[in-house]
Amino acid sequence: MHPTRTRLPRRAQADRLTYRRQVRRQLDLPPAAGRGALLVTAVAAVTALAACAPTVGDVFPEVPGALERFAALPPPAPLAPAAPAEPECTPAPLERRAAAVLVVGIPGARTAEDPLAQQVVDLGVGGVFLSESNLGSPGQVRALTAGMRERAARPLLVATDEESGRVSTTRALTGGGPSPRRLAQTRTPEEVRAQAAELGARLHDLGVDLDLAPLLDLDDGPADGVVGDRSFSGDPATAAAYGLAFSAGLADAGVVPTVKHFPGHGASSTDTHTDDAVVDASLDELAARDLVPFVQAVDAGVPVVMLNHVQYAALDPGVPASLSPRAYDLLRDLGFEGVAITDSLGMGAVNLRWDFPEAAVLAVTAGADAVLTTDGRHAVRMRDALVAAVASGTLPEARLSEAAARVTALAGGDPVAMSCLDVDVPSGHPRAPLGSA
Question: Are residue 225 and residue 294 in the same domain, yes or no?
């Protein structure tokens, strides 16, 4: 840690400088060549006078009568007392900041007393992800989410994956809904916003405050394709209009939306859950089509963007976007100020090449704020790898602190207490008390 430097109050500095200038004018001295010359001249004059120099020429040989004029000057006003030094901000321990960027699943946990649920909460993860294996009855899920939050030492995000249509983690409890493509074909954006608000209210009642939806990917191909009918449309303007309507509806209910999969998955037909996917489009081609909905989402103030595991020749060839520095740079260049989260690091396009700890380090170093895995049994190793990467210099501590601050702010916590950074994350709407309809 660096010691806090105490500085003279600005008013006192200004008063002192004004007095020096007054001395030079009344003594008919030429302007000082610089701040150092002024100080040397003034100190020399005062020192000589204090010593009762026999002649003024000993100090200012070129200015006759300077001593008399100097003696007639009023004494300087006393300097204002120095302001007390501001206390130095001390961030949370490195281990806490490393854990704060993790959003992890708790497979099979149905109660807050489950050993895995307790382990990840005590570790200090930024969020937990609910899958079908965590869901029984509405009361059971409310008790699970409330219990984990009560145990946590910091605000805790509770996420799930509810897109409407075939990706509907909470269908048994929330009722699901038509596919995004069907919604765009049969309803207006206003109606989709209203439906998403109803869905968001049911999620909010369960204690969920982060939904990893909607998709802004473009696809008008077969409904059962990798993206398929999970996409609202193959037209950029239509996909943007309906995706933002869905996002707004979730936010209306107090649930944070996540637009995905940046910078657009629609150009690839490969399923990154099991294999590598490559897109050869140029950056200009991406900007003209796939990026259009994301640009509009950023302009609208979306709080979270998920990056996919597709490799883009126009970015970092051979590296999934979720681990690509140029992909995160592109997102920030659009003006995005929210939380950038990876798709799950357990998917084949990443996990077949990098183990969870290494992938977590690569992701945060590249620019990810939140690192997602659906299996929290890897959380301790991921946390430890991030800490070790900072210690070795592989991961800049400032980058980890920034990521932890953003995730903390998204969860409703204090980013300054976490990282000594005051960050603003777009939120859309104020939060209502969780677990209430």
Answer: yes
